[in-house]
Every structure is written in structure tokens, then in C-alpha cells.
């Protein structure tokens, strides 16, 4: 009897290692969530991308728009991975059985999610210097005058995607004790490097965002001169960034940490299975970032919101609203532009 139980547990554990979902109904729910995110976020990001290119002409206007354009671009590229991943989940697979497709998916997922986090962080740092140290010279202010800084960020992210495509990272097989001794050291180094990339990609930007947000909020609360409505909107904006980042990325990071502990300490197969299922579910939650980023960074701007409504929902624009310049997104009144 005990032998049969051990055999059943061994079979279930092998399913985990082979990337087969042991809770197929739950993974179908995960797939449904990803499909909903895709359906909602794709037209939103595509419409925002269209405005940045054809209306705002981001390369000519406010340099900060370059960062926001790249943020939306990273999110929309990440969205194209979701239908494939949802397809795998529906068929009871945690990843594609095709090795080429699997590695291509990992490359796209980690590159574009890393880019999304990077541009989110860079934009927050830029806002930090503009609000807390408005007159101080800094490297970012000098670099952001050139759009090439965005290309540099993408290039720097490329090497970080290499460790994530080695082995079966998507199936959480880091530090697996498979009994092989010959290449154990090399495998441990690769696994450790992969985990370092995963955690630093989230934890370092999170620390930076916390620092910037706290100082921006304190600075704006102490400021007594200026448009109070605008100051409140700025405080709401930076606070929203922290909330979204914490909601989307911290849960999957904690779940990943628990899963690694379960693997290294060789918890029972059932606990490892539960940890893997929880990690996959919270990774699905992290894709909500693609839906929330444009809502926070683009629609918290009165100028951009007015441009978006006038372009796609003109019936919602009040008759007395001032016209927008199609190339810059500014109103025709220069005094009004200085107030936005």
C-alpha cells in the first residue's frame, strides 16, 4: 500500500517536473484571466501607442514621453505572449512542449516585463528629480535629452534574458536534486544566476520606487505654493504606481521565494505542487501590469486624457473644451499649456 502511494506521489511529482498542470481546472481559470487581460489591455495599449506616434509625435515633444512610449511598447509586446500561454494552460501544460516556442516565450516574457519595470522605474526617478531636486543637475536629465537612452535600456536588458532561457525555468526547476553529480556545480551556478536575475529585476526597482515615492509625497505635502489640485493629483499618481507595483510583482516574488525554499529543503511533493500552482497564478496576476500602466501614467495627465477622449470618444468631450494641437497634444492657449 505504501509502495503504491509512493508511486502515485512520484508520478504526480514527475508531472510537475514535466510541466504538466496537476490542477487542470484551476489552470483553465488562469487561462481565462489571461484572455480577459489580453482582450482589455490590447486595444487600450494599441490606442495609446497610436496617439504617441501619430498625435503626440513623442520624439519631438516632451522627452518624458519617450519613456512612456517605451513603457507602453513593452507592455503591448508582452501581451502577445498571453494567448500562447493561455493555450498551454487550457491544454493542461505549464509551458509549451516545443523547446523553440518555450524559449522564445521566455525571451519575450522576461525581456518585455523587464523593460516595462525598467521604464516604470526610470520615469519615477525622473519625476523624483523634477519634484524633489528641480534645480539640481543629474545624469538622467542629461541623458534623457537623447532618445538613444531608451535604446540603451533595451540593449542592457538583453543579456539578462539569457539565464532565464536555460533549463526549464518556467516550470520552476531551479536547484532540482536529480542525483547527477558530474555537472552539479555548473547547474547550481546557472540556477543561482537565473534566480538572481528574477529577484533583482523586481526587488531593486521596488526599493527605488519606494524611495522616490516617499520623497515625492513628502516634498509635495510641504509645498504650499502652486495649484493644490495639481499637487494632489501628483501625490495620487506616485502612490498609485507603488500600489500597482506591489499588487502585480511582489506576490509572485514571494511565491517564487517560497517555491525555492520548498525545492531546496525538499518538502513533500504535495506542498511543492501547491507552491508551483500558487506561483503560476501570481505570475498571471503580474500581467495585470499591462492593463494598469497606461491607466496610471497616461490617463493621470489631463493633457493626454483630453487628447485621448477627443480622438476616440469625441462625444464625451464638452463643447467648451479647448482644441488640442494634433502634433503636440497641447491646447491652443499657451497660458493654459503652462498650467498643465
Automatic annotation (TrEMBL):
Keywords: G-protein coupled receptor, Membrane, Receptor, Transducer, Transmembrane, Transmembrane helix. Residues 44-297 form the G-protein coupled receptors family 1 profile domain. It is a multi-pass membrane protein. InterPro entries: GPCR_Rhodpsn, GPCR_Rhodpsn_7TM, HCARs. The chain crosses the membrane at residues 29-54, 66-86, 106-129, 149-166, 196-214, 235-262, 282-300. One of its GO terms (molecular function) is G protein-coupled receptor activity. GO terms for cellular component: membrane. Pfam families: 7tm_1. Belongs to the G-protein coupled receptor 1 family. This is -(S)-hydroxy-5,8,10,14-eicosatetraenoic acid receptor. It comes from Xyrichtys novacula.
Amino acid at each position: 500500500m505504501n509502495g503504491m502511494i509512493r508511486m502515485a506521489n512520484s508520478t504526480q511529482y514527475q508531472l510537475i517536473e514535466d510541466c504538466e498542470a496537476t490542477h487542470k481546472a484551476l489552470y483553465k481559470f488562469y487561462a481565462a484571466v489571461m484572455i480577459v487581460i489580453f482582450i482589455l489591455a490590447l486595444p487600450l495599449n494599441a490606442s495609446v501607442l497610436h496617439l504617441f506616434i501619430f498625435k503626440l509625435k513623442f520624439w519631438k515633444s516632451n522627452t518624458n514621453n519617450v519613456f512612456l512610449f517605451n513603457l507602453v511598447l513593452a507592455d503591448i509586446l508582452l501581451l502577445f505572449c498571453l494567448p500562447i500561454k493561455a493555450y498551454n494552460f487550457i491544454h493542461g501544460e505549464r509551458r509549451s512542449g516545443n523547446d523553440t516556442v518555450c524559449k522564445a516565450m521566455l525571451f519575450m516574457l522576461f525581456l518585455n516585463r523587464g523593460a516595462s519595470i525598467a521604464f516604470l522605474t526610470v520615469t519615477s526617478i525622473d519625476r523624483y528629480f523634477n519634484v524633489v531636486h528641480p534645480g539640481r543637475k543629474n545624469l538622467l536629465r542629461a541623458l534623457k535629452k537623447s532618445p538613444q537612452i531608451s535604446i540603451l535600456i533595451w540593449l542592457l536588458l538583453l543579456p539578462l534574458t539569457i539565464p532565464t532561457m536555460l533549463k526549464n525555468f518556467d516550470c520552476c526547476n531551479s536547484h532540482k536534486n536529480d542525483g547527477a553529480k558530474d555537472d552539479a556545480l555548473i547547474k547550481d551556478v546557472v540556477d543561482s544566476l537565473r534566480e538572481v536575475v528574477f529577484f533583482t529585476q523586481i526587488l531593486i526597482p521596488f526599493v527605488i520606487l519606494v524611495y522616490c515615492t516617499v520623497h515625492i509625497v513628502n516634498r509635495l505635502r510641504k509645498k504650499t505654493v502652486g495649484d493644490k489640485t495639481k499637487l494632489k493629483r501628483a501625490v495620487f499618481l506616485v502612490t498609485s504606481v507603488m500600489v500597482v507595483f506591489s499588487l502585480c510583482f511582489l506576490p509572485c516574488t514571494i511565491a517564487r521565494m517560497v517555491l525555492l525554499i520548498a525545492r531546496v529543503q525538499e518538502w513533500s511533493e504535495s506542498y511543492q505542487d501547491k507552491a508551483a500552482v500558487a506561483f503560476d497564478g501570481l505570475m498571471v496576476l503580474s500581467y495585470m501590469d499591462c492593463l494598469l500602466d497606461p491607466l496610471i501614467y497616461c490617463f493621470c495627465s489631463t493633457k493626454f486624457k483630453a487628447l485621448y477622449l477627443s480622438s476616440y470618444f469625441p462625444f464625451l468631450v464638452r463643447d467648451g473644451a479647448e482644441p488640442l494641437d494634433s502634433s503636440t497634444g497641447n491646447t491652443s492657449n499657451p497660458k493654459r499649456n503652462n498650467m498643465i
